[in-house]
């Protein structure tokens, strides 16, 4: 069966690139530099359901994205989470947080309303994440 993205993830995010394991997507919320990594495997709800090598690859992609975002966004902290309460498909949030952002110091979930990206912000963030994907693929 081919990989199918959950409709909620498709509605809330923008495609950036396909990595070795995951699809990299940008959350459509201008308040935060917020990316998602979704393993391109159907029927996976939890990371422990992935084969051992793919589980290691998932966390390698998460860690490298987090490190890249820390270097290039001016973040004070990188938040990483895989909740899945509203969307059961396994996906990992990687969020660059800054002191004083709209949810600081609490979690981004449930903090106000998402603000759609403006065209300029969308293009800037997509370019940043595409740069990550290009660098990641060349490693």
Structure description:
The chain is an alpha+beta fold. The chain has a five-stranded antiparallel β-sheet. Strand 2 (22-27) and strand 3 (33-39) form a beta hairpin. The N and C termini lie far apart (29 Å). The radius of gyration is 14 Å and the shape is globular. It contains three helices and five strands; from the N terminus they run αβββαββα. It has one domain (7-137): HIT-like (HIT family, subunit A, 2-Layer Sandwich).
Q: Percent of residues in beta strands?
A: 15-25%
* Mean pLDDT over the residues: 95
Helix content: 25-40%
**What are the secondary-structure elements, in order, as H or E?**
HEEEHEEH
Shape: globular
Protein name: Histidine triad protein
Pfam family, one: HIT
GO molecular function: catalytic activity
Topology:
Layout: H1 7-12, E1 13-18, E2 22-27, E3 33-39, H2 52-73, E4 77-81, E5 92-97, H3 119-137
Antiparallel strand pairs: 1-2, 2-3, 3-5, 4-5
Describe, in short, the structure shown:
The chain has helices at about 5-10, 50-75, 120-135, and strands at about 15-20, 20-25, 35-40, 75-80, 90-95. It is of the alpha+beta class.
Features:
single chain, alpha+beta, HIT family, subunit A, 5-stranded antiparallel sheet, 3 helices, 5 strands, 34% helix, globular, catalytic activity, Histidine triad protein, HIT-like, HIT_Hint
């Amino acid at each position: 069966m081919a990989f199918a993205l959950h409709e909620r993830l498709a509605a809330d995010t923008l495609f950036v690139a396909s990595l070795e394991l995951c699809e990299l997507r940008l959350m459509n919320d201008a308040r935060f530099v917020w990316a998602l990594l979704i393993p391109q495997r159907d029927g996976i709800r939890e990371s422990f359901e992935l084969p051992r090598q793919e589980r290691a690859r998932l966390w390698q992609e998460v860690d490298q994205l987090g490190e890249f975002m820390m270097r290039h966004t001016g973040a004070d902290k990188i938040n990483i989470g895989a909740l899945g309460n509203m969307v059961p498909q396994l996906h990992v949030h990687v969020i660059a947080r800054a002191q004083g952002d709209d949810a600081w110091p609490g979690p981004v979930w449930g903090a106000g309303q998402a603000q759609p990206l403006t065209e300029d912000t969308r293009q800037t963030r997509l370019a940043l994440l595409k740069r990550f994907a290009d660098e990641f693929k060349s490693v």
